[in-house]
Design brief:
4-stranded antiparallel beta sheet
Length: 133
């Protein structure tokens, strides 16, 4: 099994029997500025700080890739609802200056069998940087 990385105890890995990975990762950051109007002059910007970074990605769970979609969705949902603070590591690199929380997730239930068993699902995950200081 080749381990790609981890989000807390959620391990991203691939093998000849299973694929537990992510796709379309995007890392956003932003700064905050106050605008001060001045008579007859250009607006003056003042740096007031930074917003928490966000990372978004898509995960795909399928019985055809060796995963139980409902079980994996439940694991992500539990981490989100419990406010679990996790490190994000991909390869040898830890991402961000802080740890992360799942602030939002959206599930698309894509394939069912003839008895209603979920066969494949996609999950859009949003992580927010969690600074504990």
């Amino acid at each position: 099994m080749a381990v790609i990385g981890a989000l807390g105890d959620i391990i991203f890995s691939v093998s000849n029997k299973m694929a537990y990975t992510f796709d379309k990762m995007k890392w956003d950051s932003s700064a905050r500025y106050a605008k001060h109007d001045r008579v007859g002059l250009e607006t003056l910007l003042e740096f007031t700080g930074t917003d928490a970074d966000t990372i978004t990605f898509v995960m795909y769970f399928s019985v055809f890739l060796g995963l139980n979609p409902i079980a994996e969705i439940s694991k992500l949902l539990k981490a989100e609802r419990d406010g679990l603070v996790m490190m994000l590591v991909i390869g040898p690199k830890a991402y961000g200056r802080h740890r992360w929380v799942i602030s939002k997730s959206s599930r698309s239930l894509e394939r069912f069998d003839n008895s209603g068993l979920l066969l494949a699902a996609g999950v859009n995950v949003t992580l927010d940087a969690y600074a504990n200081r």
